[in-house]
Amino acid sequence: MTSVNSLVNIAVFGIGGAIMVAALIGLLLVVSGSSRGASPRLLTVFGAASVVLLVVLPSLSALNVLSGGGGFWVGFVTASAVAAVMYAVNVALLPTLARRQAMVSGRPGLSELRPSASVLLGGLAVCLGVGLLVTGVTAFIV
User: Fold this and answer.
1) What CA–CA distance (Å, rounded) separates 5 from 79?
2) Which of the chain's termini has less CB crowding within 10 Å, N or C?
């Protein structure tokens, strides 16, 4: 029964986080397309909000699994999967953001921005690291 609960946690926290990340990116697209553009301070706020989401939502999923009686490794897989779903949305929306930034800044090289395989694998490694970190911290809390 724990595996079903883990899938529910991945769906709730992963898809919910993906929607929040997509909303942040959408807001960033709107702000960057305005007449003033996005200030460095605003870009920092958007980046900080993305990092907070990337840490908090996997933590909540791991907390939910561990408090429900699941083991450390189940919590780790769940938290890593939530982080990976959110990462996938970031990667999927990156070309759209790059095209918009290329139009605003006038640099056509940005419109052809595509992540390489090594960058994608590095991002998945970061997702595993986030999953391990938040599950370890959550295991001490529970």
Assistant:
1) 13
2) N
Give the residue among 65, 60, 64 at the shortest CA–CA distance from 86: 60
Q: Give residue for tokens 């706020």.
A: 45
- Cβ atoms of 87 and 73 within 8 Å: the answer is no
User: CA nearest 86: which of 10, 29, 34?
Assistant: 10
Amino acid identity of residue 22, one-letter, is A
Paired tokens of 3: 């595996």
Comparing CA positions, the residue from 3, 8, 2, 50 lying closest to residue 25 is 50
pTM over 0.85: no
What's the gap between Cα 49 and its chain centre? Answer: 10
Whole-angstrom distance, CA of residue 102 vs CA of residue 31: 14
Of the given ranges (36-45, 58-67, 69-78), which has the lowest mean pLDDT?
Answer: 36-45
Nearest to 85 by CA among 127, 52, 134: 127
For the stretch 11-37, pLDDT in tens is 888 888 888 888 888 787 777 666 566
Q: Which residues, at least 6 apart from 64, have a Cβ–Cβ distance to it below 8 Å?
A: 5, 9, 13
